[in-house]
Design goal:
Rossmann fold, 11 helices, alpha+beta, elongated, single chain, Immunoglobulin-like, about 30% strand, 6-stranded mixed beta sheet
C-alpha cells in the first residue's frame, strides 16, 4: 500500500482487519459499500462548517465505475444536506488529474493541492482512496481545509457484497472506454491527440500490454470524435522525431495533447494509470484515469507487464538487473542537455519495422552509441569506423543511422540504446560483450586523440520493444 504525506491529521480513525486462513473471515466492524459511503458522508457533513465551498473529486479506486459510484453517493449526500456550496463539477477535472498524478508518485503535495483548489474558489477539498486489503477493501475519505491547512479523515473497511462486485466486475475494454470518456470531458474543443509511452512502472519498458492499451484507446476515441481526433501516422512520426518531444519545442506540432501512462503489478494484475497531457510549455495534465486489469483478464488475453524473450516473459529479477546495469547512462549527472530518442513515440516496433533515432546536443561534442539486444549483449553501433561522422554541433539534432534505418526482427523483447557524449574525438572501439554493471562502467571510457582515457560529459538512454505482428 502506498504511503502519502499529508497535513497533520486532526481526526484519524483506523479499523482493524483480521483474516483467517481458508475461508475468509471479515472484520467485525466491516461495512457494506453503501453503508460505508453513508457513514463517511455523515461523519464529514457533521464536522465541516456550514456554508463552506466544497470541491469533491472522484476517488482513486481499482475501477472507474466504483470511483464514480462513491463520488455520486457522496456528492448527493453533501448536496442534499443543504449545508454547503458545491463547486461546479466542470471545474473539478484539473484538481482530479493533479491528485491522480500525485497518488501515482506515492506522495500528495498538500501545498500544491491547496493552491490548485483555491484557484476554483473552494475552501474544502474532499477526496479519497479505496484499496484492496486482503479479502476486503479500505476506504479512506479526506476533507482538507485549504485555509487552515488541516485535514479530517475517516477510514472504513468494506466487505465484498453484490454492489461492490458488480462495480468491480467490468471488462478492461470498458475501463479504457471510461478513461477516454474522462479525457474527452476535459477538453473544450476538438483536440488532436497521439498515444505515447504507456510503460512498466517508472521505466521506459513497454510490453504487449502497452500495445493493447494503445490500440484500445484509439478504438475508444471513435466514440468521442466530437472531442478527440487521433493524429495521423505522419503527424505522430514528426512529433517523435523531435528529440525533445512533449516540451515547448513541440508547440508547432498539429498534435495538441498526448496520452501517456504506466502500469505496475497489483495482485498479479495490472494497476493502470493514464494521463492526457497538453503539449504546452508546462506539460499541463488535463485529465487522469486509473483502473485495474485483473490477473484473469491478463491471462485470458495473453498480456504481460514485462516483455518477452524466447517466447516467455522475462523474470522480474532479470528485468531489474538489466535496468540497474544501465543506470550510468541515465544522464543523472548531466550538466547540459543531451538526449537520445527513438522515432516511435510509444517505443513499440513490430517485426519488419524500421527504426532510427535522434541525437540532440546542447553543446559541441563527439558521441558514441551502444546497442543492447534482447539477450543482453552490448555492441557499439556508432561510430564503427573512421568514416562515421560522430561530431554534433551545439543545438543540432542528428538522425542515426545517417542514410538507412535499422530493421526490427526476432528475437522479440526489450532492447536498449545507450548514448554518451565526449568533449574530444576518440578512437572507435567496436565491442560485443554480455551486459553487466561492470561492462557498462568500462564501456563509458574511451581513448582520446592523444591516447588518454576519457569519460563522457553527458549520457542518455532509451528502451524500445519489438513485438511479433
Amino acid at each position: 500500500m502506498k504511503t502519502f504525506i499529508r497535513f497533520t491529521s486532526i481526526l484519524a480513525f483506523t479499523l482493524a482487519l483480521s483474516c483467517a486462513t481458508g475461508k475468509t473471515k471479515y472484520s467485525a466492524d466491516s461495512l457494506t459499500l453503501d453503508t460505508a459511503a453513508a457513514e463517511a458522508a455523515s461523519y464529514l457533513i457533521g464536522r465541516l462548517p456550514d456554508g463552506a465551498k466544497v470541491a469533491l473529486v472522484p476517488f482513486d479506486a481499482p475501477g472507474g465505475r466504483l470511483a464514480e459510484y462513491v463520488f455520486e453517493e457522496l456528492w448527493g449526500r453533501f448536496e442534499s444536506s443543504g449545508k454547503f456550496v458545491m463547486v461546479d463539477r466542470r471545474n473539478l477535472d484539473r484538481i482530479e488529474a493533479e491528485l491522480a498524478m500525485q497518488y501515482e508518485s506515492g506522495r500528495v503535495d498538500d501545498a500544491h493541492m491547496v493552491s490548485l483548489t483555491k484557484q476554483y474558489g473552494a475552501e474544502i477539498l474532499v477526496y479519497g482512496q479505496i484499496v484492496p486489503l486482503g479479502g476486503e477493501y479500505r476506504m479512506t475519505v479526506y476533507a482538507t481545509d485549504v485555509e487552515k491547512a488541516a485535514s479530517s479523515q475517516r477510514a472504513l473497511v468494506i466487505r465484498p457484497d453484490s454492489r461492490l462486485s458488480s462495480l468491480l466486475n467490468t471488462s478492461p475494454d470498458d475501463e479504457v472506454e471510461r478513461a477516454v470518456s474522462t479525457m474527452a470531458r476535459a477538453v473544450n474543443r476538438k483536440t488532436t491527440i497521439a498515444v505515447g509511452r504507456i510503460s512498466y512502472a517508472d521505466t521506459q519498458t513497454a510490453s504487449n500490454l502497452s500495445a493493447w492499451l494503445k490500440n484500445t484507446i484509439i478504438m475508444s476515441t471513435q466514440k468521442h470524435r466530437d472531442k478527440l481526433q487521433v493524429a495521423s501516422e505522419d503527424e505522430v512520426n514528426e512529433l517523435a522525431q523531435s528529440s525533445r518531444a512533449l516540451t515547448a519545442e513541440a508547440a508547432n506540432s498539429p498534435i495538441q495533447a498526448v496520452i501517456t501512462g504506466s502500469y505496475s503489478p497489483l495482485d498479479n494484475g495490472a494497476d493502470v494509470m493514464l494521463h492526457l497531457v497538453a503539449l504546452d510549455g508546462g506539460k499541463t495534465v488535463l485529465a487522469s484515469a486509473h483502473f485495474v486489469i485483473p490477473a484473469a483478464e491478463l491471462q485470458r488475453r495473453r498480456l504481460s507487464l514485462l516483455p518477452e524473450k524466447d517466447q516467455a516473459v522475462i523474470s522480474k529479477a532479470e528485468f531489474e538487473a538489466k535496468q540497474q546495469a544501465v543506470v550510468p547512462y541515465a544522464g543523472a549527472n548531466n550538466t547540459w542537455l543531451f538526449t537520445a530518442t527513438p522515432d516511435a513515440l510509444d517505443g513499440i516496433y513490430y517485426d519488419g519495422d524500421s527504426m532510427s533515432m535522434q541525437i540532440y546536443a546542447q553543446r559541441d561534442c563527439y558521441f558514441r552509441i551502444i546497442h543492447i539486444d534482447v539477450n543482453g549483449n552490448t555492441q557499439v553501433i556508432y561510430p564503427t569506423s573512421a568514416r562515421d561522422n560522430n561530431f554534433i554541433k551545439a543545438g543540432q539534432t542528428r538522425r542515426i543511422p545517417d542514410n538507412t534505418r535499422y530493421r526490427m526482427g526476432p528475437p522479440f523483447g526489450e532492447e536498449m540504446i545507450l548514448a554518451a557524449a565526449y568533449d574530444r574525438p576518440f578512437t572507435p572501439a567496436p565491442q560485443s560483450v554480455p551486459l553487466s554493471a561492470d561492462s557498462i562502467s568500462r564501456s563509458m571510457t574511451v581513448e582520446g586523440d592523444n591516447h588518454t582515457a576519457m569519460t563522457p560529459s553527458a549520457t542518455a538512454k532509451f528502451s524500445y520493444t519489438i513485438l511479433p505482428r
